[in-house]
User: What shape does this take?
Amino acid sequence: MSVDAETRVAPPPSGNGRGASVLYLPKGNRGDYFHHLLMRGKERNGWRVSVVCEPVHEKAFAEIVTGAGACHAFPDFTLRQSWESDLTAVASLDARIEDCERFSGVPANRLLLSGVRNLGCGFGRAHHLMPKSSLARHVLRDNMAGMRVVRRMFRFAFELLDSVRPDLILSGEWATPLH
Assistant: This one.
């Protein structure tokens, strides 16, 4: 699937935002602002809100997703996924990632470099204090693990976008490599 203007931006169902599908990628900052905005959109315009969050945080978003929305949990990106043994699925995913790279002008490997404290910690290990996260430990054990994690993140993002088909995506001004 190619990334082009038609697949990149979907107009709201009625052109005025009523009944729009909204995908929320929460971060700790401005959570109250986004909660209020999303609730107002649900109440006044019938927004269907979906949230990407850890399962332990689903209760905090229950009010926002009630109705046609849903909470979508992150998979464990350090674990091998069943689709990775299917060469056709991997080739298809790589083609979609390449389409995104061409469209944006940003190589996917830049995610490794931007995640210097976790996903790309192998690149900055000598210059930064590294957290002891499971993701950081995982990518330090195998120098190809970071790119496999990036590929899994893209797969998760594509599946999520295909499932939710958002008209609007809300996120904070800074985020993790997945956002």
Notes: Helices lie at 5-8, 31-45, 62-65, 87-104, 110-114, 121-124, 134-141, 145-164. Confidence is low (pLDDT under 50) at residues 1-13. The radius of gyration is 18 Å. The first strand starts at residue 21 and ends at 25.
